[in-house]
């Protein structure tokens, strides 16, 4: 991963001739230095993940747009640090909101990741392979569920770049929080990206990823290692999520413990779907062969 210092918030940084990044001022333990909005194009634009409904970030985006036509406001997923800024931006630019499908979560369980944007309502949902284009650029939707059920990445065919949202980030592994997050889907989406030849990833958080295939292989290995840890702990009689997290995440910032618990639960649900473990209330155990 790139260890260079982050750019200041609100500053337009050209990453390559067709791509400009603006960092939102919403740094936190879950967003790292903040949400990164990417502008694609030169004479006309797509705005990827306009971020939170923040006055300073909105003003920075308008300065960067500088009156150019906005063809689309493109959303990777429906978390509150990615999509709420779309509504005001759409009103002021006239651009349609498109990308990830809307989602209504019926479960009221605990949340570790950014809250859902309950008001997210795209004008157009993009399915796998659908494209949005402008002068000299085209973005193709790549379905990458796992972090959320509706997560999309977007490939910029002209340069070999992939806007990876929160599926692959430049600073940490993605939180997979059931019921909307699904570990089996997340792993399958990583395998899908591993089979592609994208040159660089521009994530929603953290700096650009210049050797993406290497990172994706590392993420797959990391998740398989976590799965192995869980099975070993179950074999030792450690059968509840909090006890597993205590053993697996030594020294973790306590503010991130809820996220760790949700990811361990996601692994357990995936193992249960594969008939390797079973639940008895809040206790888990290995299925005897």
Automatic annotation (TrEMBL):
On the tree of life, the source organism's domain of life is: Bacteria
Q: Which residues form the Metallo-beta-lactamase domain?
A: 34-205
Q: Name one Pfam family in it.
A: Lactamase_B
| Gene3D superfamilies from the UniProt entry | Ribonuclease Z/Hydroxyacylglutathione hydrolase-like (3.60.15.10), Winged helix-like DNA-binding domain superfamily/Winged helix DNA-binding domain (1.10.10.10)
- InterPro entries attached to this UniProt entry: LACTB2_WH, Metallo-B-lactamas, RibonucZ/Hydroxyglut_hydro, Sec-metab_biosynth-thioest, WH-like_DNA-bd_sf
UniProt cross-references to SMART domains, sorted A to Z: Lactamase_B
Mind telling me what this protein is named?
Answer: MBL fold metallo-hydrolase
Q: Which organism is it from?
A: Sphingomonas hominis
